[in-house]
Q: What sequence folds into this?
């Protein structure tokens, strides 16, 4: 199965049910993960994707120790969020804040910081920096790409997960 970073899943969910017993699996299963740094699994069969990679999750019944139920999980290397960020046009000497709107499928999602930079500081400089915006000052006619390295935080059942992603937008400066 394919899974997303930061998301939690039920072992029984592989068969379309939230509880392993609802999926027709025997009671009292013991769960294990081939790589708990990718996806640890708890005693209830709940696992959370912590990092990209492949992991094999196994459930064994004490009544049938030779029967193993397995799921191979491929964790995607995608940050669990998206954003809206448009380019802007400024005039020489103009200064303003410009930022982005973000959204995520996760309720406990926070953008903790963004480090902004300009590809062409002679045209546009970056001043004050906030997690979702930065102050821009237009210095000379031309174009520059403003890039941001964004740090995101998701509070999950497995604890706090931190992700890093990149955003950018184009600034055109008119005389």
A:
């Amino acid at each position: 199965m394919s899974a997303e970073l930061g998301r939690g899943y039920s072992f029984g969910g592989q068969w379309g049910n939230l509880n392993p017993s609802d999926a027709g699996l025997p009671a009292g299963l013991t769960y294990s993960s081939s790589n708990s740094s990718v996806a640890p699994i708890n005693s209830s069969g709940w696992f959370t994707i912590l990092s990209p990679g492949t992991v094999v999750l196994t459930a064994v019944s004490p009544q049938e120790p030779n029967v193993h139920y397995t799921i191979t999980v491929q964790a995607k290397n995608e940050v669990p969020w998206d954003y809206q960020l448009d380019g802007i046009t400024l005039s020489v000497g103009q200064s303003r804040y410009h930022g982005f709107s973000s959204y995520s499928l996760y309720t406990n999602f926070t953008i903790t910081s963004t480090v902004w930079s300009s590809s062409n500081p002679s045209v546009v400089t970056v001043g004050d920096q906030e997690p979702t915006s930065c102050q821009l000052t237009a210095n000379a006619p031309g174009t520059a790409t403003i890039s941001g390295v964004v740090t995101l935080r998701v509070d999950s059942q497995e604890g706090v997960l931190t992700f890093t992603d990149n955003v950018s937008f184009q600034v055109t400066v008119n005389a």
Notes: The chain has a mean pLDDT of 86.
